[in-house]
Design goal:
Layout: H1 2-39, H2 44-62, H3 69-85, H4 91-100, H5 105-114, H6 120-158, E1 166-168, H7 170-180, H8 182-185, E2 189-194, E3 202-204, H9 206-226, E4 231-240, E5 243-250, H10 280-291, E6 295-301, E7 304-312, H11 318-325, H12 327-330
Parallel strand pairs: 2-4
Antiparallel strand pairs: 1-3, 4-5, 5-7, 6-7
Helix pairs in contact: 1-6, 2-5, 2-6, 3-4, 4-6, 6-7, 7-9, 9-10
Length: about 325
């Protein structure tokens, strides 16, 4: 899991580093282009118009629409033709960036109307650097936000800064576990969430519930990997009477009927030597049944295996009820 989290953190961190390096280059070129423009035959009004267009350009980048590949290709062709018609021979290099930023021919017409024809190439080049810096800053923001979400998920998963027993949101625990295991799940297994929107919070030991989710997801992924490495993992929640249901459904080969009664026994495993201890389901059983007074059951047939966890909506023992009313003592 540590290796998976490191991998997940490394990707956005590396992207942020690359974007920062490129941003530094673009800002340097923008300063140079600005110096060239300042030395050119720009009137005060033309410069003011150009600055206004620059501001509006930055706003458009922030609101860039999502285009289909065909729409993007058509817009690139139109922009390239316009740029070449107006004396920019390298228009084909600028067009993809402008399209990514949500700019079109109408925007270029506004630029052309604001400056004289002889300085249009320099003005467009300067605005191109504006677009690139905005896009790079968006990339850095997206990457660092991803890192922040991963760190939050790790904290949520570990529950290191939380009381050991408290009222918890099941969906938050499931989401953090799925994110922590995303590297192991891999791209070939589709994850489908079928969450009950109005699911109430429940009393429990969140760190240990995360361990249950981890064990059940790990088993489901292993089963599908053994069956070819593809499949669907469906995580479903529902309210069943006075209990919350959390179900993990996989499309693996299933649990054979002859061993179904033994899978919760300690040290029983169907995995090869060195790949499983046989304790995952035993530990999960103890956490669900003994600590949370719930139920852990399995329904299985080839292509449809469902491990179902049922957890009560209210605390069971007097000690647990006391822990909820006196969380500082529980911590």
């Amino acid at each position: 899991m540590s290796a998976g989290l490191t991998h997940e953190l490394n990707n956005p961190a590396a992207a942020a580093v690359r974007a920062t390096s490129t941003l530094r280059e673009r800002v340097a070129k923008m300063r140079h282009k600005l110096a060239v423009i300042a030395e050119g035959p720009f009137s005060r009004d033309a410069l003011a118009s150009l600055i206004e267009i620059q501001e509006r350009t930055a706003e458009r980048v922030a609101k860039a629409p999502s285009l289909s590949p065909l729409e993007a290709s058509d817009r690139e062709d139109a922009l390239t033709d316009w740029l070449e018609d107006h004396g920019l021979d390298h228009g084909w290099q600028l067009a993809p960036t402008f399209v990514q930023a949500g700019l079109d021919v109408d925007w270029l017409e506004q630029v052309a109307a604001a400056v004289d024809a002889e300085i249009l190439p320099g003005a467009v080049g300067w605005l191109n650097y504006t677009v690139e810096t905005e896009l790079l800053m968006d990339e850095i923001e997206d990457s660092t936000t991803r890192i922040s979400h991963l760190v939050d998920a790790a904290k949520q998963y570990s529950q290191l800064d939380r009381a050991p027993y408290r009222v918890v949101g099941v969906h938050e625990l499931l989401d953090s576990t799925l994110l922590m295991l995303s590297g192991k799940i891999g791209p070939s297994i589709e994850v489908v969430k079928e969450y009950e929107p109005a699911l109430p919070e429940i009393p429990g030991y969140p760190a240990e519930l995360n361990q249950v989710w981890t064990n059940l997801i790990d088993n489901a992924v292993s089963a599908m990997n053994d069956a070819g490495g593809q499949g669907t993992l469906t995580v479903r929640t529902a309210l069943e009477g006075e209990q919350v249901l959390v179900e993990f459904r996989d499309t693996g080969p299933g649990v054979p009927p002859e061993i179904r009664s033994r899978i919760f026994d300690p040290f029983f495993t169907t995995k090869p030597v060195g790949q499983g201890t046989g304790l995952g389901l035993d530990i999960s059983w103890r956490i669900v049944v003994n600590k949370h007074h719930g139920t852990l059951r399995v329904e299985s047939e080839p292509g449809d295996t469902r491990f179902q966890v049922l957890l009560p909506l209210t605390a069971g023992t007097p000690e647990e009820r006391s822990a909820l009313t006196n969380p500082e003592e529980a911590a």
